[in-house]
Amino acid sequence: MHAEIALLPGDGIGPEVTAAAVSVLRSVARRHGHDFAFPEYDVGGIAIDRHGVPLPEATLQGCRRADAVLLGAVGGPKWSDPNAKVRPEQGLLALRKGLGLFANLRPVRPHPAALDASPIKPHLLTGVDIVVVRELTGGIYFGEKTRTADAASDLCSYSVVEIERVLRSAFRLARLRRGYLVSVDKANVLETSRLWRDVAARIGREEFPDVRLEHQLVDSMAMHLLARPREYDVIVTENMFGDILTDEASMLAGSLGLLPSASLGDGKAGLYEPIHGSAPDIAGKGIANPYATILSCALLLRHSLELHEEADCIERAVDGALNAQAFTGDLARGGRGLSTAAAAQAVIEQLQAHCYVAELRD
Ligand code: NAD
């Protein structure tokens, strides 16, 4: 297959982790007979420096033309003045909006090698495999805001269409996995949550009768996520609840450097990025953990290119590299960690053992 993957390295460690991920994608492409092109564009701080805006028009158009977008990270101390008119994160928000992306997927699958790095007891984490689907474009973050000298308000609103589309994404994902979806809301208090719950129940009944749907209040979900994370599979929720629950869920995995994400819309287009930021404290040293970005490539292959075997192959290879203790400094616990490039090379070597299709062809 020929595919175009727009590459947005961004700032800080972004260029280092995306370069490592591209080396893995090239290796997968060679093994499976695909032809991937990686046109590169500026976003974030580097785009402000070069073009005066965090999302140049050429970047947006390039991303629209591409089959998928791989992003490193944006931001850093150089652009962090809160009073600045243009800020790197605006580039990310504008990109999601410009590509019509409304569902953010964050898989959390703690690897045995990183269990000790999590503040949660290891026996609770074994076998955890969760995807949180967060609505990205509506809710209280985007509602009308007011401020007077002695009061302020933020409006939380959702339309049926906004709820339906993210729920359909979550139901489809649940169908591909264990056929179990938990929809999280605060329907005992909020009207938007009551609408959310009604829409979830209708879509489940009418379109996905094969998927088991449960409703959970967000406060109890926050407890269950830590107390019995193994019981969950796909969790779907609105923007602010998702923002909080995904950060909580990331603690299950131990290291920020292991968590990928995907932002998806109606079609196959998607934006794939590690959940960590630009890590200015280690940028330029060649020691950043590339696994979250490499695992984001697995999501890209699965959701935008429908290359399921290739996606599984990358995930197995990262597991293999971690099993072989190919650790960067953040995972090495005091020991000396591998460089970013050496960790990517460890994954490439593991592809040999874990790309079953290629083995048959060899
Ligand atoms: P961060 O995720 O960049 O770093 C937090 C800590 O984790 C740091 O100590 C860092 O060294 C470490 N870390 C992060 N990723 C790592 C990796 N791959 N390997 C090894 N260690 C890693 O968060 P922060 O320090 O709060 O933010 C730094 C900058 O990144 C800020 O400008 C922030 O706005 C931006 N940011 C961007 C995104 C994004 O692009 N999506 C997300 C979060 C933060």
CATH architecture field of the largest domain = 3-Layer(aba) Sandwich
Q: What small molecules are bound in this structure? A: nicotinamide-adenine-dinucleotide
- Biggest pleated-sheet summary: 10 strands, mixed
The overall pLDDT, averaged over residues, is 94
- Which class of secondary structure composition applies to the elements? alpha/beta
**CATH topology-level fold name of the largest domain:** Isopropylmalate Dehydrogenase
CATH superfamily membership of the largest domain, which one? Isopropylmalate Dehydrogenase
Taking all Cα atoms into account, the compactness measure Rg is: 20 Å
Shape: globular
Element string (H = helix, E = strand): EHEHHEHEHEEEHEHEHEHEEHHHH
Topology, number of strands: 12
Task: Report on the architecture of this protein.
The chain has helices at residues 14-32, 45-51, 57-65, 88-98, 122-125, 160-176, 191-207, 218-227, 239-250, 291-303, 308-323, 340-354, 356-361, and strands spanning 2-10, 35-37, 68-73, 103-108, 130-135, 145-147, 152-154, 180-185, 212-217, 234-237, 260-264, 270-274. The chain is of the alpha/beta class. The protein has 2 domains: 1-103 and 255-362, 3-Layer(aba) Sandwich (Isopropylmalate Dehydrogenase); 119-253, Isopropylmalate Dehydrogenase (3-Layer(aba) Sandwich), CATH 3.40.718. A 10-stranded mixed beta sheet has the order 2-1-3-12-11-4-5-10-8-9, sandwiched between helices. Strand 11 (260-264) and strand 12 form a beta hairpin. Helix 10 runs antiparallel to helix 11 (308-323). The radius of gyration is 20 Å and the shape is globular. 49% of the residues are buried. It binds nicotinamide-adenine-dinucleotide. The site of nicotinamide-adenine-dinucleotide has 23 residues, from helix 4. Nicotinamide-adenine-dinucleotide binds at residues 13, 17, 73-76, 80, 89, 92, 256-257, 273, 276-282, 288-289, 292, 330.
